[in-house]
Amino acid sequence: MKEFKVIDRFFVNCGQPRRDVELSIGDDCALVNPAAHKSIAISCDTLVENIHFFPDMPARALGYKSLAVNLSDLASMGAEPAWMTLAITLPDIDEDWLSEFSSGLHQVAEYYGVALVGGDTTRGPKSITITINGQVPEGKALTRSGAKNGDWIYVTGHLGDSALGLDILRGTQHFEPALNEYFIERHYHPTPRVLAGQALRELASSAIDISDGLVGDIGHVLKRSKVGAVIEVDTIPLSTQMREAVPIEQALGYALTGGEDYELLFTVPEFQRGALEVALSHAGVSFAKIGQISTGDKLRLIKDGEPYTPMNFGFEHFKS
Ligand code: ADP
Ligand code: MG
């Protein structure tokens, strides 16, 4: 099968058709017509075999996750997903694999209203790069730089499950089948918090998505916002499965220093707390208040009133 046949068969008509796409796959460029008074939010993520995923990762899950991690970046800025391009490098053309991959990609693209408008197909070690484009009302994007002393710190969902899932895949953790499956599922199918991100636009002072672990990612907010923070580690949301599977010190280690949660971490000024409860309950996502922004530039972790040092599951993909 030739490259253009692969594109025709697996990538033309992938995702959600959109009226604002003037010209899609087939020409040298795609043409899209952005809405008036919107900024275009652009982000790109690459997943490389043996670095970001194991060779036996199901193709459908890889299709799903390649887009989900990009959508998570849009979510953290409060942007609405619109268009994407896909650069895919494959060692050979395996039609069954491509069919599964493209249906995983299609599933999440359709759900979030994203059209696949172009890309590149090459031969080489397996890797997937998606560039996502979203739209956000001018001046309304959430950034890492707006956190102020006294703002409350929140996270969506539960933390740590994905990193524990990765350890199961690596063979360093093992539980009963139902638990194994739950954690691996959270690792393969993170939920990008797209609606929550948009709901936070008028409320949050800063936001970031947690891809490299809570401690590392909040560090980016503190640096960009020139503030410090205190986190009460007992208030970090853990799934019931996490609490059941490992001792609390390990659970907190995964939650604080594991990676690939793709939950949102955001800060909210005191006067917006009421509005936040309403907005996020409409977005249908759980969230928890885990600390407060302070002066200075340090992150302090507190447990039972004492400084806390987490077990380090320092997230470095598979490295090397
Ligand atoms: P060019 O040589 O001009 O870069 P290509 O022959 O690589 O064009 O691609 C032909 C068309 O197919 C272009 O519109 C390109 O955007 C699209 N395309 C190529 N690979 C992919 C892919 N993996 N997914 C989606 N569209 C693709
Ligand atoms: Mg060309």
Written account of the structure:
The strands form three sheets. The chain has a seven-stranded mixed sheet with strand order 8-10-7-11-9-12-13. It has a four-stranded mixed sheet with strand order 3-6-4-5. A two-stranded antiparallel ribbon has the order 1-2. The chain is globular. The protein has 320 residues and is of the alpha+beta class. It is built from ten helices and 13 strands. The chain has helices spanning 3-11, 59-77, 95-112, 161-170, 177-188, 194-199, 214-225, 240-245, 248-257, 273-283, and strands at residues 21-23, 31-32, 38-48, 80-90, 115-123, 127-137, 152-156, 206-210, 228-232, 263-268, 287-294, 299-303, 306-307. It folds into two domains: 3-137, 60s Ribosomal Protein L30, Chain: A, CATH 3.30.1330.10; 152-307, Phosphoribosyl-aminoimidazole Synthetase, Chain A, domain 2, CATH 3.90.650. The two termini are 35 Å apart. The structure holds adenosine-5'-diphosphate (ADP) and magnesium ion. The site of adenosine-5'-diphosphate has 13 residues, from helix 1, strand 4 and strand 5.
